[in-house]
Amino acid sequence: MRRFHQTVLVPDREVVTVPNMFPALAARGVGLRSGEITLIAGPPGAGKSTIALALAVRSGAPTLYMSADSTENTQRVRLLAMLLDIDQAEAEQAMTQDRAWASEVLAQASHIVWDTRSNPSLEHIELTIEAFREAQGEDPHLVIIDNAGDVAFDSGDEFGSLRTLMRELRWFARDTAAAFVVLHHTREGEGNPAPPQSSLHGKISQVPALVLTLTSTAEPGFMGVAAVKNRYGKASPGGTDPVWLRYDPANMQLVDLDEVPYE
Fold first, then answer.
1. Is 35 left (phi over 0), alpha (psi -120 to 50) or beta?
2. Crossing angle, helix 158-176 and helix 122-136, to 10 degrees?
3. pTM score
């Protein structure tokens, strides 16, 4: 048992946002908080992996990226394209031609440690966090699970498994004081302009402190990010008030956009 007026003077861990978020999101009170879960959801192709990788790169914080959804080579190419602002096809060709050069470039993101098992279990996630702790001498500050639907369970229905996943990840987040980012899907064809909180598969939005949904639009070059749940700031559960980012998926680039790109 603890008394807050005493523990606040000597906290176990400082609870802060992971640094270097997008300024436009930070202005809305959107941040990745230590010991909490952020859920980023959207339809296929909305850019979930892009924004997760951008957050990992920009944070500069010790990061564990569990990439069940994409192969090691795919993530190397994406990261190289993001760091150099070049097309992914160009990045892959350049990497093949000069791997020593590619290694030097990728070293800019050496704070990110990768695990690319295609169907990790909760036990594997826990063991990987422990391995990170042993190898790095500290817990990760940021953990990314890409994505929730790929985590393996021996039994149980999909919705029940997803709810179990979120409860267990909440325990991991509090135990490590890491900010956890979990990627997930929404139903296709829903959004005004971003998908509402109710569109998440499995109804797993109860546990995360922050739920962001991403727009899927025919308008090229933009991504809308809506905080449909936010314990620490403004939220728009219907997805009606997103922050707009300029988005180039070929080059893996995301930058702030100060105004709505279209009506």
1. left
2. 20
3. 0.91
The set of residues, in sequence order, having a beta carbon less than 8 Å from that of 204 and lying 6+ positions away, is 39, 148, 159, 162, 163, 165, 166, 184
Query: Per-residue pLDDT tens for 113-168?
Result: 999 999 999 999 999 999 999 999 999 999 999 989 899 887 667 778 888 999 99
Which residue's structure tokens are 């995301």? 254
Domains and CATH numbers, the chain: 4-256 (3.40.50.300)
> Residue 61 — φ and ψ, nearest 5°?
-90, 150
**Helix, strand or coil for residue 255?**
strand
Neighbours of 256 (CB within 10 A): 14
Q: Identify which of 37, 73, 71, 76 has the alpha carbon closest to the alpha carbon of residue 252.
A: 76
Q: Read off the pLDDT of residues 226-252 as tens digits, 9 standing for 90 and up.
A: 999 999 888 999 999 999 999 999 999
Model confidence at 189, pLDDT cuts 50, 70, 90, reads confident
Tokens representing residue 99 in the block: 């791997």
CA nearest neighbour of 224 among 73, 66, 22: 22
Spatial distance between the Cα atoms of 222 and 246, rounded to a whole number of angstroms: 5
The token pair at 59 is 């944070």
Residue type at position 260 = V
